[in-house]
Specification:
mainly alpha, Growth Hormone, Chain: A, 2 domains, 78% helix
């Protein structure tokens, strides 16, 4: 009787510990964004391309870390892997705070990106298995909410912390990762590769196993579109004459709704097919991107559009996380999922910026953005919906997550 009472308590403790680790370890990367110029260009006398490389080489490190996931999962418990990766992350951030030069800083930044992905992959995988209940959507929604709130907190904190000395953000990030490592010691995940809770529902005939392969291009497309929202769209709105304060506030609203909507979207994904949710949310998100450049650029029009995109983004991210949790691939699956998203976030804005530069020069007019964003919106919808069509035509019910179509 006592075991039955303590099991929910242990599961709740593991859930909140994992959410705290996600929130805390999401802040360091976001902290550097407001002071990127001072941290790289002014500190080392580097060109602006070095600042872009400082951000992108972190993503490349994350991609490289995907190859380590299966090895790490076999060798140690999730708690131990997260603890070591978070401590490694803390040490690397502290090293970057030292005046070690630009090239060594970039090399350390690459390694820090790898450690970052290991933390996320294993914490998200741990949360997917942290309960005997097959309701993975709510747990993944809570994890997505913690991640996005951590990013928002890091953006806000970075500008304040760096006022006296820009490298302070790196030291603060190191402290955050060290705290995350301490909390990771409490993550209760068994060694080896235990059967996830979702498998129990499969054995009872109430759920079907998901396939990882179609989820990765969907996440790539989602993050590419998200990258356009936070990079290309603000530039377009500025070209239309909107103030940075107004544009930033509206995009901030979309990001806030994306964070706050993640948990309700996860609860919904436990009751409705995640793929059906993705179908509707993809159309809303693509339509929102197109509406931004086609509609009148005024807050009365843009605020509802961006609010809708924020809610759709919450559904997209959480439903995809839920599907990955149901693949039973553990940390390797979560690592591939986050790496695909990182790659999309890099490719989307980079291609848009390259096309704009080639067609309209270094300072494009507002009209130059319209065909680029419309093409991106159409391409996003095609990439996001193609796996759904493949699933429906070739492997029906494979990813639905319920026994009913």
């Amino acid at each position: 009787m006592q075991n039955r009472r303590t099991q929910p308590s242990n599961e709740t403790f593991a859930l909140w510990t994992g959410l705290a680790v996600i929130f805390i370890t999401a802040t360091p990367d976001a902290m550097v964004v407001p002071v990127l110029r001072a941290l790289v260009i002014e500190r080392y006398g580097a060109p602006i391309s070095a600042a872009h490389l400082f951000m992108t080489i972190n993503l490349l490190g994350a991609l490289a870390a995907v190859t380590l996931m299966r090895f790490l999962q076999r060798r140690a418990s999730h708690a131990r892997v997260v603890r070591i990766a978070a401590l490694t992350n803390a040490a690397l951030l502290a090293v970057m705070a030292l005046p070690i030069g630009l090239l060594p800083t970039l090399a350390v930044r690459f390694l820090e990106g790898a450690a970052d992905l290991v933390v996320y992959a294993f914490v998200f995988s741990s949360l997917a298995r942290s309960s005997a209940s097959p309701r993975t959507g709510a747990r993944m929604g809570a994890a997505g909410c913690a991640l996005m709130l951590g990013v928002a907190a890091g953006l806000a904190a970075g500008a304040v912390i760096a006022q006296s000395w820009p490298p302070n953000v790196l030291l603060a990030g190191a402290a955050a990762c060290a705290i995350g490592a301490l909390l990771a010691s409490s993550i209760r995940t068994p060694r080896g590769n235990p059967i996830p809770a979702y498998a129990q529902a499969q054995e009872q005939g109430t759920a079907r196993r998901a396939s990882l392969a179609p989820i990765l291009p969907m996440m790539f497309a989602d993050r590419a579109a998200s990258g356009l929202l936070v990079t290309t769209v603000p530039l377009y709105l500025a070209a239309r004459g909107l103030s940075p304060h107004a544009a930033g506030g509206m995009i901030g609203l979309a990001m806030l709704l994306m964070a706050l909507g993640a948990y309700p979207a996860g609860r919904l994904a436990d009751r409705v097919s995640p793929l059906r949710l993705r179908l509707l949310a993809s159309i809303v998100y693509a339509g929102g991107l197109a509406a931004i450049v086609l509609a009148r650029p005024s807050p009365s029009v843009l605020i509802p559009v961006l609010a809708g995109m924020g809610i759709a983004g919450a559904v997209l991210f959480t439903s995809s996380l839920t599907l990955v949790a149901r693949t039973e691939t553990g940390a390797p699956g979560m690592g591939a999922f986050h790496a695909a998203g990182n790659l999309g976030f890099f490719v989307g804005p980079t291609l848009a910026g390259l096309v704009l530069s080639l067609q309209a020069g270094p300072d494009p007019a507002a009209e130059a953005f319209i065909p680029v964003v419309l093409t991106a919106s159409t391409t996003y919808l095609a990439i996001a919906l193609a796996p759904l069509a493949w699933i429906g035509l070739v492997r029906p019910l494979r990813l639905l997550g319920t026994t009913s179509p």
